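During the no-cost extension, the postdoctoral fellow (Dr. R.K.) reprocessed legacy sequence entries with the updated structure-token encoder. One reprocessed record is reproduced below for audit purposes.
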Amino acid sequence: MLEVVLSRIDREELVRLTQELVRIPSVYRPEEQEGNETNAARFVADYLRNAGFETRTEEVAPGRPNVWAVWEGDRPGRTLLFEAHTDVVTEGSAQEWDHPPFGAERDGGRIYGRGACDTKGNLAAAVGAVRAIRDSGVAFPGTLV
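Re-encoded structure tokens follow.
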């Protein structure tokens, strides 16, 4: 079963998805008392919808929407929740970066940019995992959120 699911993962698609997410500035600046995650959340919702998932978005605070999608397996079972956030900490001085903070440049097998590992890359991996499970056709008892 695992080999079937893993064979459905498109690594280049996950890299592209991570890069697109990193290129969306979604810096949370607490002093402004408003989030800047709407564009990132909209991108995630559109991506999931285009991949065939039903999505739901709820703005829990100004500029800070949550997006979720649910996929029901072939029979009842436990629920597995994948979680990630789209906000990132401030980028600081661009002169201190070796790569642009929102450039999502690939260098030496890595993607550089704000949020690449906290947690936009994680989000891309979770989306890829859910798609691979669904698209593999293996029997799955439960729900993926």
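The helical segments are 2-7, 11-22, 38-50, 120-136. The mean pLDDT is 95. The remaining legacy entries will be reprocessed before the final report is submitted.
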